[in-house]
Amino acid sequence: MRSIWKGSISFGLVTIPVKVYSATEQRDVSFHQVHREDGGRIKYKRVCSVDGEEVPYADIAKGYELPSGEMVILTDEDFADLPLSSSRRIDVLQFVEQEEVDPIYFAKSYYLEPDAQGAKPYVLLRDALESSEQVAIVKIALRQRESLATLRVRGGVFVLETMLWPDEVRTPDFPFLEEDIEVRKQELSMATSLIESMEGDFDPSEYKDAYREALQAVIDAKIEGREVARPAEEAAEEPAADLLSALRASVEAAKKSRGGEKAGEKAPAKKAPARKKSSSSGGAKKETAKKEPAKGRGRKSA
What we know:
Structural class: alpha+beta
CATH topology of the domain at 5-25 and 83-168: Ku70, Chain: A, Domain 2
Strand order of the largest sheet: 1-2-6-9-8-7-5
Largest sheet: 7 strands, mixed, barrel
Number of strands: 9
Order of helices and strands: EEEEHEEHEEEHHH
Shape: extended
CATH class of the domain at 5-25 and 83-168: Mainly Beta
Radius of gyration: 27 Å
Oligomer: single chain
Distance between the termini: 32 Å
CATH architecture of the domain at 5-25 and 83-168: Beta Barrel
């Protein structure tokens, strides 16, 4: 990996020099636009819509369009006067419980690596933060944009999760939220049974991008000059007569599916409802128990 940013974590009077790396990458199959007849790459020119002339990159500015259609042109000097921090610091603002930050705010993840001289304070803050079971709320100026972010520990490394600002999260203003929709007790019980029958520990390696694999197979076949086999389409299931019947059929199908996956394996012991959840196999089922209301400190809104 190659670092995309260098700076420091500012924690009180402690400064920890770090390098920032992108923690994720897209694995989509990329394409170029080409001429169908000869495979030539398609090129675009920057042409002015007013005079039709090609415009050199050096003469291109940023424009903000008004509702009237008029354009406000901004220059490099205009952007130079903006209050964007250039200190290259990750300022720690406060520490909060991780559950207080709604995941909808998260934008992108980055790894933080300490410089040689910052290894000890890095490990000190990492261990303290991990033992507190909290996350740090920080502010960082990254790629010409100031962002809030969280700082947490994953696999012994700090992970910086940049966040959206509150006014960037839309409100779900859907009509059905104002409707008085009645759910019968039997339907709710059956839906709960379906959820319980599909419980398991999350293992991301169990899932795959079937579309990407099929697309890559098409490309490989084109390269090798052979025919591509089209997978057989699954037979469409008959729709259930009503919601309760659909839920009941789904529960039965889930039980059969999970029973097949665990065929021949020794059934694991059930978890005691009063104990704290710990790592276990995906096939282990939980005993249904009535939960007592949580007695914890009130959570602040994110």
